Amino acid sequence: MTTQFEPVIGLEIHLQLKTKSKLFCACPSGMPDEAAPNSAVCPVCTAQPGSLPVLNKGAVELAVKAALALNLNINKVSIFDRKNYFYPDLPKGYQITQLFKPISDNGYLEINGRKIAIARAHMEEDAGKSVHRADATLIDLNRAGTPLLEIVTEPQINGADEAYNFLTRLKSNMQWVNASNCDMEKGELRVDVNISLRPAGTTTLGTKVEIKNLNSFKAVRDAINIEIGRQTDMLNNGEKIKQETLLFNKETGATVPMRSKEDAVDYRYFPDPDLKPLLLDDKWLEDMKNLRPEMPEAREARFIKDFALPQYDAGVLTSRREISEYFEEVLKTGAQPKSAANWILTDLLGALNAAKKDIEQSPVKAAALGKIINFCDNGKISRAQAKKVFEAAWQTGKEPETLIKEMGLEQVSDAGQLETWAKEAIAENPKMAADVRSGNAKAVGALIGSVMKKSKGKANPGLLNEIFNKLLG
Ligand code: ADP
Ligand code: ZN
Ligand code: MG
Predict the structure, then answer these.
(1) Which of 10, 48, 388, 398 is a plausible cystine mate for 155, CB 3.0–4.6 Å?
(2) How remote is the CA of residue 47 from the centroid of ligand 2, in Å?
(3) Ligand nearest to the Cα of 83, by number
(4) pLDDT at 263 over 70
(5) Is the pTM of this model over 0.70?
(6) pLDDT given at position 249
(7) What residue owns the CA closest to ligand 1's atom 17?
(8) CB of 318 closer than 8 Å to CB of 299
(9) pLDDT attached to residue 259
(10) Distance between CA atoms of residues 255 and 235, nearest Å
(11) Mean pLDDT score, 77-102
(12) 308: CB partners within 8 A, 6+ apart
């Protein structure tokens, strides 16, 4: 008989905080990979003797913003520790991190109604980078000292999909508060996955395996599924899981051992004597809490409740803070919420996607889109014409009312003009008119069509319908 196993997953996430300068010096942070090696370094981040670290207040601010967006408790006092190990890209021989007293702990994110506990989020500095060449290994310290926030979840995630959804929510919240760009390709968000199995329904944790080197959420999901399969087979064969670190190979889908944790390095942690404990000012912390924006979950719920939007629409509109703000700007023009949502979800996001632009770079601003929506909903222009105006506004940046004039699109709603056209159409199409008269209501569509042609698409079809019914009724 085979046992049913359930996966238990904990994530460790490194987030690059979006500061201008590094964590303990004034060097620029977040230099692109193409930047000249060692062009953003100074005595501090290259560990010259006698240099001293000075904590970057901006990094603390972003760490606190990020932590609040993960529902973490902020610790008024936190302490920087030295984590000692030898590696060529670590010039000091230690990394400054926070082990014993992190800046924040005890948070959570809610994923489909389940609260996933976050144990802690602490500040630390990034290491440099080794560049391997055939003849030598070179060191680039541009990245050394970059501020990171390490976020550690409790072992509570129950599978690959939940891990994927957790990371998606985390990324969206971090971008929402502008703490990080979270671009995984640039290493701004890195994920290590810890996985163990246990007999379904039991509570004792099994031996975990850690997987590193996952460079997309999809890779995280794939690696978890593969690892669950591997561990299930081993346990069913009566084998023991070895605690180890694996590297995931995206191409082959295989995991290969990196190092065994049995002989884990002793990091000899101790408080960094060069840095005083970080003490957060009460008033400052209170301000930070008050500045915490409405988060995506709450905004989504509000959009559903206040504007009667479908869950799907509200979800897309709150997938990025800028999109939700754009939507609310459009509403300020008096546009109907559902119309605004439709236009943003289909026309605007479609165009932005095709042009590979973010909504902040949209050539059609919220006020202009609001006008187009109102002209369309009030019958000044038809939906098809509104689309043309939108495209023209996208190309030229001109105001919708100007474009409507220039393009001669204004819908004709003048009863006299419409009646003249209708009478002409009846005279030109006696058979159609007779059909309508004899009770074939559908035949009126053909008459409306003939007026649309005559008017080059400008006639108001709703009013025409009424006029034909009156004339032929
Ligand atoms: P370590 O000391 O090996 O770094 P931690 O207790 O600090 O382990 O946990 C590191 C990460 O591993 C956390 O995200 C935690 O949730 C996860 N984790 C710990 N134990 C297990 C386990 N048995 N199965 C799955 N994940 C685990
Ligand atoms: Zn520096
Ligand atoms: Mg750990």
Answers:
(1) 10
(2) 9
(3) 3
(4) no
(5) yes
(6) 84
(7) 10
(8) yes
(9) 63
(10) 17
(11) 96
(12) 337, 338
Q: What spacing in Å lies between the alpha carbon of 254 and ligand 3's midpoint?
A: 24
Residue 248: the pLDDT is 87
Listed in sequence order, the residues at least 6 apart from 354 whose beta carbon sits closer than 8 Å to its beta carbon are none
Q: Beta 209-214 vs 244-249: how paired, if at all?
A: parallel
Q: Domain boundaries in the chain?
A: 5-287, 294-407, 415-472
Q: How far is CA 103 from the centre of its chain?
A: 24
| Amino acid type, 87 | Y
- 3-state class of 175 per DSSP? helix
Contact 231, 224 (CB under 8 A): no
Q: Which ligand is nearest to the CA of 261?
A: 1
- Evaluated on CA atoms 259, 262, 268, 270, the torsion sign reads positive
Output the six-digit token pair for 426: 């009846």
Residue 199: phi, psi to the nearest 5?
-55, 135
pLDDT tops 60 at residue 397 = yes
Tell me the CATH number of domain 415-472, given options 3.30.420.40, 1.10.10.410, 2.60.40.10, 2.40.10.10: 1.10.10.410
Instruction: Please write down the long-range contacts of 315-322, taking CB distance under 8 Å and 24 or more positions apart.
Output: 316/345, 316/349, 317/341, 317/344, 317/345, 319/172, 320/172, 320/175, 320/176, 320/358, 320/359, 321/175, 321/176, 321/293, 321/296, 322/358, 322/359, 322/360
- Residue 211: Cβ within 10 Å count: 23
Nearest alpha carbon to residue 166 among 178, 152, 179, 177? 152
Structure tokens at 232: 């299930």
In angstroms, rounded to a whole number, what is the distance separating the alpha carbons of residues 352 and 367? 17
Atom of ligand 1 nearest to the CA of 154: 16
Distance from the Cα of residue 112 to its chain's centroid: 17
